[in-house]
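job 3f2a | input accepted
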Amino acid sequence: MDAAGIKTQILPEKNGNPIVYGEVKSKSSTKTLLIYGHYDVQPVEPLEEWDSGPFEAKLQGKKIVSRGAADSKNNVTSCIKATESFLKATGDVPLNLKFLFEGEEEIGSPHLPGFIDENEERLKADSVVCYDGDFDETGRPKISLGVKGLLYVELRCKKAREDLHSSYAPLVDNPAWRLVWALNTMKSADGKILIKGWYDDVEPFTSAQSRLVGKIPFRGENLLKEWGLKKFLNAKTNREALKKYLMEPTCTICGFKTGYIGQGSKTVLPGSAMLKIDFRLVYNQNPKKLLGILKDHLHRHGFDDVQVKALGFLEPSRTKPSAPIARAAEKAAKIAYGRSAVVLPRNPASGPDYLFTKRLGLDSIWTGSGPPSAYSHAHAPNEYTTTDDFMAGIRYISAIMQEYATTS
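job 3f2a | predicted structure (408 res):
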């Protein structure tokens, strides 16, 4: 960043990874754009499924294969190279730029709220671009006017001091079954979350948001083919699947660990069991409130032996379609790609966007450049972006800077 002409600071976090912060002052504009991104990545396991070393950044044809290639080193680097290009070509940037790159996005940005609160003056801006996105399946950039929230929890149940011979099953409570039975009270076969009060604060889409959903191209058959599936869960049509994807809260078992799962057989009665769940939340749901509702639910159903540990909180966010930064990004997409962007009223993934929209009171969009996440293997072995997507990403964020500088 320094080499690109960005005045950069490494700002340590008390208990986490440092924030990389940078600024470039414009000679021609008083407007300020804050650009958010992240430099951390997901774990690389399982290593044996990678075709090359996960941090080799190996070029395979036009593919750059590496952990973080798509999520989100390509986008971070695009922002830096766009700024460098402006400074080299004109000696100036279209507007004041501030960069906030964190190192804990993949674990729920646990220390970013404190940083935002302590640096509100430093982060003063007119709007925010969270440059951490990808294309849709038709090759058009996506502009998200908000994100889903997140509550990530760990459930544990401990019974015997250690694993026992399974012949003791009539005598000793099985913690694995306890968690299975607890899960059975939380979600129905048709996908509905059964926890009392879970939907109470859900705010339905406005008519404007619903119109945006109606304009979104969605080729569900392509996703099914890529994933090796025959049909979507509880959705008969592409349009129904898209609405569920964007609009509904979710409850997802991310992992379950208990007993013996090695090769062959081993007849044991587990002494303990643990599972992890993520709940995606829609606008107006509060993850900390829902944590209390979850604990109350388990108590009501007789699962006081199940311990609940919160591992991450992210609130949902929202920005109006008429926001200047949203309109500027739509114009920029046409300039960079010659095509209209796909505007999503809500990104079905999660991120710390609420810190910008609620804490700082700014309009914020999520966008970026790269292969669709359904195909780029983001969070999986052989993650990749392409050289073409990387170069287009530089053009796109450059155009966003230029267009927003002149958008009122």
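job 3f2a | The mean pLDDT is 96.
job 3f2a | closed
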